[in-house]
Specification:
Number of helices: 16
Distance between the termini: 58 Å
CATH architecture of one domain: Alpha Horseshoe
Structural class: mainly alpha
Helix content: over 70%
Order of helices and strands: HHHHHHHHHHHHHHHH
Radius of gyration: 22 Å
Number of strands: 0
CATH topology of one domain: Serine Threonine Protein Phosphatase 5, Tetratricopeptide repeat
Strand content: under 5%
């Protein structure tokens, strides 16, 4: 079985091998959708209508790039009158609304896009989370971020965002849960490799041979050969320069300190400082905890 798995991995090397260079998050892009629409957003079937609809959509993209948001909105609506389920137009219409500050209409557009079963729902939920957060709807923001995390191949950023909201609203236990989930998914090369494979699988048809081979790899607990000692050292080095990871450690420590769990908080501040010795916030937090422990 092990030799068969290795053979399968070798055969898929040309299809997925180079993607391993990006396992530290490059394959997952959060924030607004790109206005240069990926292929998964433009798959249509009626050539006649498609040409006209895509023409309006492309014009909208140019207006969006030029920050002419109202014009872009009008052009995307024109595209959707012709092809109502043109995902790229719906996505970028939501972006145009978002950038013009009309969060409620942007959320409506994104919700409609979700009904069309887009390949990357995690990006939509993340965008919705940001809009709910900016409009002060924290509960809906957290819910959207957690849904994004459930769908994402690399969920750590969504967990971090949810954790930040919980921390800001002094719901420290819930914040710690989210931050620990972010650490769980961020800290191992196995999870990074798995996320990379899941992302690659999303752009493939179910009948594609590479899709099937990735499914075999994902269904086994056998550690792939790609995890050589060198790969692990490089991965660890990359984590050591990850500021978001250091902030996560600091935030867990902060949540524990706010609950007067000072001894438990210290290792997290120390971890953050070991990564970034000049991390002022972590250093100040550690000093505060040291004083509190000294006064006990």
């Amino acid at each position: 079985m092990i030799s068969h798995l290795r053979l399968m991995e070798h055969k898929t090397n040309t299809a997925i091998g180079f993607f391993i260079l990006f396992i530290w998050g490059i394959l997952v892009v959060f924030g607004v959708f790109t206005i240069i629409s990926p292929d998964w957003l433009t798959a249509l079937s009626n050539p006649g209508k498609n040409v006209e609809a895509i023409s309006f959509k492309d014009a909208g993209d140019q207006s969006l790039k030029a920050e002419k948001y109202q014009l872009a909105i009008s052009q995307y609506k024109s595209a959707l009158k012709i092809v109502p389920d043109l995902k790229s137009a719906i996505a970028n219409l939501a972006v145009a609304y978002q950038r013009s500050g009309n969060f409620s209409k942007s959320i409506i557009a994104f919700k409609h896009l979700l009904t069309l079963e887009p390949e990357y729902p995690e990006v939509i939920y993340y965008n919705m989370g940001e809009m709910y957060e900016k409009s002060g709807q924290t509960e809906k923001a957290v819910s959207s971020y957690l849904k994004s995390a459930e769908e994402a191949s690399f969920p750590e950023k969504s967990y971090q965002k949810a954790g930040q909201i919980y921390m800001d609203t002094e719901r420290f236990d819930e914040a710690i849960v989210c931050y620990n989930k972010a650490l769980e998914h961020k800290y191992t090369i196995e999870n990074a490799y798995r996320g990379m494979l899941l992302n690659q699988q999303k752009v493939l048809a179910d009948s594609n041979i590479t899709f099937e081979r990735i499914s075999v790899i994902l269904s086994t607990e056998q550690q792939p050969e790609v995890f050589s000692k060198y790969d692990r050292l490089v991965f660890k080095e990359q984590l050591g320069s990850d500021l978001a990871l250091a902030k996560t450690y600091n935030n867990i420590g902060f949540c524990l300190a706010k609950q007067a769990k000072y001894e438990l908080s210290l290792p997290y501040f120390s971890m953050a400082l070991s990564m970034f010795p000049n991390y002022t916030e972590a250093r100040n937090n550690k000093r505060f905890v040291d004083r509190e422990l000294a006064n006990q």
